[in-house]
Amino acid sequence: MSKLTPGEESVSWQELTADIRGKGLPGHQLYLVLSEATNGPAAVLANREPHLAYQMRLESEGALFVAGPLAGEDGQSWDGSGAFVYRAPSLERAREIAGADPMHVAGARRFRIMPWLVNEGSVSVRLFFSGAAPRLVP
């Protein structure tokens, strides 16, 4: 990566990605969607069923990695906001996926989307041979 000058506010995403991958980290590109309620939780709850059906379809197609509601900073309240992580071939495609979410189409939420490189962490899954459903281990 080129030498940064003090006070520089941003660097090239492509250059950062190449640097990360060059250091042996995976740099797996995903897309983080922050979905913010536009008028509180009532409108969000009114649109929950079509939104969940859409999310479940994305999950079965492999486009949805994780999703769920976001608590307020106090950890005790919910204003109707949520977050999703999409697998998509491009930022444009991720925007299309988010824009087609019934929650966003109805105007109950607006979204911001940011490319995200996954470099560290782990995922654990427990599989049961006796017929119990697989479980994600937090």
Report on this model:
This protein has helices at 13-22, 41-46, 48-61, 91-99, 102-105, and strands spanning 28-37, 64-69, 82-86, 109-118, 125-126, 135-136. It has 138 residues and is of the alpha+beta class. The protein has a domain at 26-119: Alpha-Beta Plaits, CATH 3.30.70.1060. The chain has a four-stranded antiparallel beta sheet with strand order 2-3-1-4. It has a two-stranded antiparallel ribbon with strand order 5-6. The longest helix has 14 residues, at 48-61. The mean pLDDT is 92.
Strand order within the widest beta sheet: 2-3-1-4
Largest sheet: 4 strands, antiparallel
CATH fold name of the domain at 26-119: Alpha-Beta Plaits
Known CATH architecture of the domain at 26-119: 2-Layer Sandwich
**Subunit organisation of the chains:** single chain
Structural class: alpha+beta
Arithmetic mean of pLDDT: 92
Strand composition percent: 25-35%
- CATH homologous superfamily annotation of the domain at 26-119: Dimeric alpha+beta barrel
| Residue runs with pLDDT of under 50 for 5 or more positions | none
User: Helical amount among residues, as a percent range?
Assistant: 25-40%
Keyword list:
four-stranded antiparallel beta sheet, two-stranded antiparallel sheet, 25% strand, 138 residues, 5 helices, Alpha-Beta Plaits, alpha+beta
Please give a quick description of this structure.
This protein is an alpha+beta fold.
Layout: helices, strands, pairs:
Blueprint: H1 13-22, E1 28-37, H2 41-46, H3 48-61, E2 64-69, E3 82-86, H4 91-99, H5 102-105, E4 109-118, E5 125-126, E6 135-136
Antiparallel strand pairs: 1-3, 1-4, 2-3, 5-6
